[in-house]
Specification:
The chain is mainly alpha-helical. It is built from twelve helices and ten strands. A hairpin with a 2-residue loop joins strand 5 and strand 6.
């Protein structure tokens, strides 16, 4: 029996941006923290800044200070992009790039953030600028599956708003092909020999491609992959994500160190699957992901910190990593955004039923 330890008030209802503000300055978003204190010496990375742009642009009615964060994150992304469309990732606190432009995960996340900003940004100029940067980056291709998957999720954001965008359509098509169909092995249908990181993003891309490109077989493949992954990562009624080291076919849950990015990827994919199908199996998946942050997990330990608004960096066998970096905090915000949306939709449905 797992003893669940959650924050004193028993719940964290809505996304809190307090720690995101703490981690941000007028340049970007600090990658790491010691506890809740930003570690300036580690500088910034585009990977996290792009995630920050994404969650801020997901807010339906952002406060003025969140709009200002979106502007800062967009400016950082623009500074990171090379004339050829690739991106730098690591910027030191000395404001010098520590790498060359490339098409790794940071390229994919940049396009995901830019696609979201182009479709949902809080100001017309943000949407226009993000669209131009997205199209410049979307001319490139990455050989890495997850980099491509992240980029494709940005393409899906744009296609949902503008089905005529050729750059987004081509990128999403190519990504779905690169990920591939289920293996054909019922015991291990996953298209890779091992589960890696952000696994649910691969299934989400197939779901998005099938839905937005009108291919029912690709959609069915994506739902099959997501359903299998959700089943694999649900243990005794709670989410038990693939750990940081991945998981092979002969390895069973639980495994540690579990990362918030896994729960966030699951919530993203399940939210999209629910939007496409209306099947409550997927809204339940979002609830499992939210519960994981609040203590419904293999260690019975909450990772969300209501005192700071941040999220601890990983779940360990006997507790948690107490540091509250950007990646984990953004993962928490993202999942709570989905949970809030489902709660609002449920309240609307209940109200309509009551007045019918």
């Amino acid at each position: 029996m797992i003893t669940v330890r959650i924050p004193p008030n028993g719940t964290i209802a809505d996304p809190c941006f307090a720690h995101l503000r703490r981690l941000s300055d007028d340049t970007g978003l600090f990658e790491h923290a010691r506890g809740a204190v930003p570690r300036r010496e580690h500088g910034y990375c585009l990977d996290d800044v792009a995630r920050g742009l994404l969650v801020v642009c997901r807010e339906p009615e952002p406060e003025p200070d969140l709009v200002a964060l979106a502007e800062t994150y967009l400016a950082f992304t623009a500074h990171a992009q090379s004339p050829g469309g690739a991106f730098h990732n690591r910027l030191g606190y000395d404001r010098r790039w520590h790498d060359e432009p490339g098409v790794g995960d940071w390229w994919g996340r940049a396009l995901w953030g830019l696609g979201t900003a182009a479709a949902r940004g809080p100001a017309p100029w943000i949407r226009d600028s993000a669209r131009a940067m997205f199209e410049a980056g979307a001319r490139l291709r990455s050989p890495w599956v997850r980099s491509t998957a992240f980029a494709a999720l940005g393409a899906a954001e744009i296609l949902a708003a503008d089905p005529g965008c050729g750059a987004a359509r081509n990128l999403l098509t190519d990504a779905a092909e690169l990920i591939g169909a289920p293996s054909g092995n019922p015991a291990w249908p996953w298209p890779e020999e091992r589960l890696g990181y952000a696994n649910a993003a691969l299934a989400e891309v197939r779901i998005a491609a099938g839905h937005l490109l009108g291919d029912d077989s690709v959609l069915a493949d994506g739902l099959t992959l997501l359903g299998w992954l959700l089943e694999q990562e649900t243990v005794r009624g709670h989410l038990s994500p693939t750990p940081a080291g991945g998981r092979g076919q002969d390895q069973k849950a639980p495994g540690f160190d579990q990362q918030p990015i896994e729960a966030a990827a699951m919530a993203d994919a399940c939210a999209r699957a629910f939007a496409v199908t209306g099947d409550t199996r997927w809204s339940a998946g979002v609830a499992l992901a939210a519960g994981w942050f609040l203590g419904e997990n293999d260690s019975g330990t909450a990772l969300a910190d209501e005192r700071t608004g941040g999220c601890c960096d990983g779940l360990e066998r006997r507790g948690r990593n107490e540091n509250q970096g950007a990646e984990s905090t953004l993962a928490l915000i993202s999942v709570l955004q989905h949970r809030r949306h489902f709660a609002e939709q449920s309240a609307i449905a209940s109200s309509r039923t009551a007045t019918a």
